[in-house]
Amino acid sequence: MATGPWSDDEINTTVDIYFQMLTLELAEESYVKAEYQREIARTVDRSVGSIGKKLSNISAVLDEINAVWIPGYKPLSNLQGRLREVVVDRFTGDAELRAFMLRSVEDPKIEPSPLGVEVDPPTVDWPDRSRGRTGVHGIDFAAIESLNRALGRAGEIAVVEGERVRLSAGGRDDLAAEVRHVSVLDGDGLGYDVQSFQDLTDEPVFIEVKTTRYAKELPFYISGNEVEASNDLGAAYRLRRLYRYGKRDAGFYTLLGPLARNAQLKPDVYRGLPAVDSAG
After folding, report:
1. Which of the 8 DSSP states describes residue 266?
2. Is residue 206 within 8 Å of residue 228, measured between CB atoms?
3. Sequence ranges of the domains in the chain
4. What is the pLDDT of residues 205-264, one digit of tens each?
5. What is the pLDDT of residues 13-27, one digit of tens each?
6. 188: which DSSP letter?
7. SS3 sequence, 221-264?
8. What pTM did the predictor assign?
């Protein structure tokens, strides 16, 4: 097996096959990652582990530039500089892929689906966006998906139904009947979407739902009002993050209590007015 830095031919082959898989992912077509890794191995004289790391490096570059990456290849930093150049050039030069990605995150045809399995919150760090902040493509695909009202509403409905099923299975049909889809019944300005109950008790909990059709490691977008609600409600607050929504490997995790304590929050958007002394 070869060692040392990857050649341009090796990088180009691996990037080409990654983008083939990414296209299938966006099209929601089934594929087997292992088969594509074997295809890479037929051309690239590297170990299976080395190929897998390189594919995760490609995800890291796409994450840096706010693009969708392939779930299953969690972004892995400390990557070869030449790889970053090839991935960025390939992505920015493929207008058709970017348009396809945009249609995918904006898709209004979303149907309610089961929640999937509950998992622990993932261990993730913020990507290094210092290299890709400007001059790349100017689109934050994850942010656009977070504004997809059809996806958000479908996720909320799934949580409402999941809470009702959970309570009924525990013998509390009375509580199941009282689960409220607050964002529909009372409006979406309260800082949470669903009101349910703690375990099988009468103690209320307040659930904010964040839904993505992609990886659980993707950041969620949260408003100042929602952060304030989490602080005010304290231990009764829940943020439920649905990931791979509508897919066979769908799942969710939950953050409990104030988000300022249980989430890594970055103020990416500010409101602004002129400074008091700016006139004249």
Report:
1. -
2. no
3. 1-106, 145-262
4. 999 999 999 999 999 999 999 999 999 999 999 999 999 999 999 999 999 999 999 999
5. 999 999 999 999 999
6. S
7. CCCHHHHHHHHHHHHHEEEEEEECCCCCCCEEEEEECCHHHHCC
8. 0.88
